[in-house]
Amino acid sequence: AQSVTQPDIHITVSEGASLELRCNYSYGATPYLFWYVQSPGQGLQLLLKYFSGDTLVQGIKGFEAEFKRSQSSFNLRKPSVHWSDAAEYFCAVGLNQAGTALIFGKGTTLSVSS
Amino acid sequence: GAVVSQHPSWVICKSGTSVKIECRSLDFQATTMFWYRQFPKQSLMLMATSNEGSKATYEQGVEKDKFLINHASLTLSTLTVTSAHPEDSSFYICSAGALAGRVNEQFFGPGTRLTVL
Fold first, then answer.
1. Shortest distance, CA A57 to any CA of chain B (angstroms)
2. CA-CA 20 to 30 A from B12: which of A39, A74, B39, B40?
3. Band of the pLDDT at B53, cuts 50, 70, 90?
4. B108 has a chain A CB within 8 A of its CB
């Protein structure tokens, strides 16, 4: 069965420092991979997605993620964190099959210190 | 494009009443819609998959008689929480599936916060 693991429950980063949020997945084939961000009380905002092709994916708000098949990972990175990036981040996996839902990791809470 | 709306965005109701939440795909047709539930500080858990014109498929542990799902058209799915109780208080999020090219992609609504008193 598919699964998504986000090993870090909570991360604190200084403003201006770099960020990497980890995501590992378990699936027999190459899944579709997503990163979402959620601010308190808000819905999900898609940061970026990977379907195929270039394994380094650029997203919104200066985020990028790299798909590494050998490590079954899809880590999210940002070179310089802003205070407004403080939020909950979810990694999700989907199948290349119509009518199938996404499976979400448990999320990583990002705090930004000044 | 690919906008999904939910209504209401928040609702407070008394215990024992029923609440209906609507999920609409505004600019595309969604053969499949999904309903997720999110408890505070937790991840999204899939409740059910809704296909237009057919019965919803519920995940294990989700009571289909309590969470009624209707997908009457390609742009509208509704979730009705029947005889709501405080433990049903949660954030409910829908998503609509669309075939972006040949890729199965989903678009999420903004969520509905339900508080049962």
1. 16
2. A39
3. confident
4. yes
